[in-house]
Amino acid sequence: MGHLDSHCHLDDPRFAPDFPAVAARAAAVGITHVVVPGVDLASLAKPLPEDPAMTLYRAAGLHPAFLHADNALDQLAAALERGGIVAVGECGLDRRHRSPGDLQRFHGQLDLAVAFDLPVILHVVHAHDEVLAALKTRPLRGIVHAFAGPWPLAKRYLDLGILLGIGGIGTWATSKRLHETIGACPSDGFVLETDAPDLSPSWIRGQRNEPAELVGIASAVARLRGSSPEEVLAASDTQGSELFRIR
User: Fold this and answer.
1) What is the DSSP secondary-structure string of 117-129?
2) CA distance 205 to 173
3) Would you state the pLDDT for residue 100?
4) DSSP states of 43-68 as a string?
5) pLDDT band at residue 160, thresholds of 50, 70 and 90?
6) What is the DSSP letter of 115?
7) Cis (ω within 30 of 0) for the bond into 90?
8) What 8-state DSSP symbol labels residue 85?
9) Radius of gyration of the chain (CA)
10) Helix or strand or coil: residue 23?
11) In which band, very low, low, confident or very high, does the pLDDT at 1 lie, cut at 50, 70 and 90?
12) Ranked by mean pLDDT, which of 64-73, 90-99, 158-167 comes out on top?
């Protein structure tokens, strides 16, 4: 298989006008597999875009920044029962968007991940202690998406079997503590992601991000690690394909 973008919202409307061109640019640099996280029940109802140059895999979750129906967990469970889902997420906690029931909803999604033997894709903002406490009580594997923290925090996730999702933030000059984390992280402790169309790398910051930028992110990560882009991509592909059971 080609390279894997472990987190990219290709179902975002911003890709609709030129999705075939986006897929072609990605395939031209070897990005042929993409995990598309879910954010709400509506995203589950939409078919993923299709193109012969790219294989997309669906994750399903209830993002903490969105509002959800009271029976959202039941509907999510029904979707997981139908199959075709490679992960539960995005799920997590975000102190910028606290709402009644968000903690219960998060714990419920972790329980579903355990029940269906799926990894989790975690969205965590200013709530790491709460999330780590929840993870400690469950046998889970997964990714903490868009990780930007210091090495001691990263190690707490790694010790629980949670990989670091490294993307465009790692290329920003202001991300000094993340740069140190990237340098210290073992080769089996991270996966690459774009989070396109958002969190663009430094060279297109403020513009629409897309999966083709994963190769540039790999080069930036390689410089921080004192390795080659090929080694970084290979390490990410290995961890991502094993985690999502993509072959």
Assistant:
1) T--EEEEEES-HH
2) 12
3) 79
4) HHHSPPP-BTTBEEEEEE---TTS--
5) very high
6) H
7) yes
8) E
9) 17
10) helix
11) confident
12) 158-167
What is the spatial distance between Cα 12 and Cα 10, in angstroms, rounded to a whole number?
Answer: 5
Output the six-digit token pair for 221: 């990560």
Q: Which domains does the chain have, with CATH numbers?
A: 3-244 (3.20.20.140)
Give CA torsion, residues 233, 120, 7, 66, to 10 deg.
-160
Q: Is 175 helix (H, G, I), strand (E, B) or coil?
A: coil
pTM: 0.97
Please answer whether residues 7 and 37 qualify as being in contact, where contact means their C-beta atoms are separated by less than 8 angstroms: yes
Write the DSSP assignment of 196-243 as a string of letters: TTSS--GGGTTS---GGGHHHHHHHHHHHHTS-HHHHHHHHHHHHHHH
Give which of 146, 142, 84, 157 is closest to 110, Cα–Cα: 142
